[in-house]
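Contributing new complexes? Match this layout with beta-D-galactopyranose.
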Amino acid sequence: MQKLFFTQFLPNHFQMKIFNVIIINVLVSILCYSQTQKPFLMQTDFHPAQIWSDTNGNPINAHGGGVIFFEGKYYWYGEHKLAGKSEAQFADGGIHCYSSEDLFNWKDEGIVLSVDYQDEKSDLAYGCILERPKVVYNEKNKQFVAYFKLYLRGIGYETSNVGVAVSDKPAGPFVYHHRFHGGGSPKGSGDFSMFRDDDGNLYHLTVRKPDKAFVIGKLDGDYYYPEGDYQICKGIELHTEAPVVIKRKGVYHLLGSGSSGWKPNAARYYTSKSILGEWTYHGNPCHGYNKIDSVGIEKTFGGQSSYIIPVQGISDAYIAMFDIWRPENPVAGRYIWLPIEIKEDKFSITWRDNWNLDAFGQ
Ligand code: GAL
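Output block (do not edit by hand):
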């Protein structure tokens, strides 16, 4: 073996040792390099309000979203925010989808419905506002139906539509189908929850424009259009936004927020024995303090509600999803996912720095 210049004066066993150290260093460097190329580490905990990366190592870009479970996988759909744009500069790029088997590690399925960058006349023309997508599976048509708040390009927040897009697969692509004015109002409606009851009926619960009354309407069997009139949900305060409704043991639970644009406010919680109301108010269900952003429950830890995920395989386990909005740089918005604790059949949501599904066994 050719001797390295500086080793030739050393005894043989030292030369071998130095040679081994060099080889090990080279191997470790190769390994480290390949790892920096793909920095993904399996995640086993939720870290509310911290940057959450997908399995490619990119921060998840799915804001104001919702999660469904289909054939062994969860699908998370949310607003794709365009990098380098503020909300005022039109940051909405469409619906971004991720899939996961465990709720911690999310694979990027791409943008499953894009705004239209070519056709200025399209309902989805770039410059429209496309928010809070939620997907529901229609058993009858074997179709995934996506709903979103849609404000047409050039119109702004004044008149709203519910945009509807469809796909025969959970990870899309979705095809834009039509739009309608929610709430039975020509001005449409704002934030909403799509709630499917045990009998298959789908309801659109939403804040009506311009009077901000909280209303409910039933959709047709295709889940395309409201069927019949909307009615006011008695007991729910005016200006209730960011609603999500789920049913547990025959009782309907509604989590929502007040109305202060992108700025957080206190969460609101209601229950009812009938989806049509009357609803009972239970105040703010949140407890604790988000030390990362120094925000308490009067501002929902800095977040606004968006969805409640029923966890598969664990009975009575639900995760509340909130968004931390960043209107100046929306792509940097973060997520707060927290377990729902149920005491005497009422929900409560306590801040945790990190947690996993064991929280439901406690
Ligand atoms: C929030 C709403 C968001 C967005 C924002 C705009 O109240 O939940 O989806 O529309 O207002 O100011």
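Reviewers usually confirm one structural detail per submission. For this one: The pocket of beta-D-galactopyranose is lined by residues 64, 131-132, 191, 241-242, 259, 261-262, 304 (CB under 6 Å).
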